[in-house]
Amino acid sequence: MSLLELHHVTKRFGGLVANQDVSFSVEAAQIVGLIGPNGAGKTTSFNCVAGYCSPNEGHITLDGKTVSGLTPEACARAGIGRTFQIARTFTSMTASENVLTGALLHHKRLPAAREQARKWLRFVRLEPLADRPSGSLTISEQRRLAVARALATEPRLLLMDEVMAGLNPSEVREMVDVVLQIRNQGIACLIVEHVLEGIMPIADKIVVLDRGAKIADGTPAEVSASPAVIAAYLGDA
């Protein structure tokens, strides 16, 4: 049994079909890239997994237990962490306080929650900036802060939405290293990404969506050679 399984998931918004019969899986401690052209339905898949919307058809399981239809908080308690395409930090709060909000999900006593916050700030190499307001951090630092806050909720699966977008090559390498270290902690990562040079070398598997449907699912090498994927990105010419 896989850690995460999407079973024939379809999601409609009125007459728009955002996901059509999408099925794929994520194993424990696996990095899976979810890619595709703009409007392919990647974020909708994320939102269904994380509890921000429910599939109209199909279902989603985590460790064999159905999570589709749960609230975002219930999904977080079940072991699903999530970052967003635009880093959502509490800009008036310090970096440490931001991560503390995640740690409080499972640690109700402040000393224990603060220790967890320090642990994950250290993990993403932001401990020296712990007392800085998050609004004063760079884009790269805010993205790593969002990852630390998600990790503080103690997920078994971390959904990462374009964490490399807008970063320079050095910052992309830094984020790639963070992702690899997350896998080393035994945490699976499902990553929506447009920076293919960041995700392709580290992913165990790539899932490709186009116009709401899955068109490929395999190793980075297999997906890169797929005629359907080439056509989706470059056209049929």
Explain what the structure shows.
The structure is a single chain. This protein has helices spanning 42-50, 72-78, 95-103, 110-123, 139-151, 169-184, 196-199, 220-224, 227-234, and strands spanning 4-13, 16-26, 31-35, 57-62, 65-66, 80-82, 157-161, 188-192, 205-210, 213-218. With 237 residues, the chain is of the alpha/beta class. It has 2 domains: 1-77 and 155-237, 3-Layer(aba) Sandwich (Rossmann fold), CATH 3.40.50; 80-153, no CATH class. The strands form 2 sheets. It has a 6-stranded mixed β-sheet, with helices on both faces. A 4-stranded antiparallel β-sheet has the order 2-1-4-5, with helices on one face. Helix 3 (95-103) runs parallel beside helix 5. The radius of gyration is 18 Å and the shape is globular. The relative contact order is 0.18.
Write the layout of secondary structure elements.
Layout: E1 4-13, E2 16-26, E3 31-35, H1 42-50, E4 57-62, E5 65-66, H2 72-78, E6 80-82, H3 95-103, H4 110-123, H5 139-151, E7 157-161, H6 169-184, E8 188-192, H7 196-199, E9 205-210, E10 213-218, H8 220-224, H9 227-234
Question: Characteristics of this structure?
Answer:
single chain, 237 residues, alpha/beta, Rossmann fold, six-stranded mixed β-sheet, four-stranded antiparallel β-sheet, 9 helices, 36% helix, 25% strand, globular
Order of helices and strands: EEEHEEHEHHHEHEHEEHH
The largest beta-sheet arranges its strands as 6-7-8-3-9-10
CATH class of the largest domain: Alpha Beta
Shape: globular
Q: Span between N and C termini? A: 41 Å
- Overall structural domain count: 2
Helix content: 25-40%
Q: What oligomeric state is this?
A: single chain
> Sheet bearing the most strands, described?
6 strands, mixed
User: Under the CATH scheme, which architecture of the largest domain would be assigned?
Assistant: 3-Layer(aba) Sandwich
Reported by name, the CATH topology of the largest domain is: Rossmann fold
Overall residue-averaged pLDDT value: 94
What Rg, in angstroms, do the CA atoms define?
A: 18 Å
The overall strand count is: 10
Proportion of strand residues: 15-25%
Poorly predicted ranges? none
Q: Please identify which CATH superfamily of the largest domain we are dealing with.
A: P-loop containing nucleotide triphosphate hydrolases
- Assign the structural class, choosing from mainly alpha, mainly beta, alpha/beta, alpha+beta, or little secondary structure: alpha/beta
Question: What is the number of helices?
Answer: 9
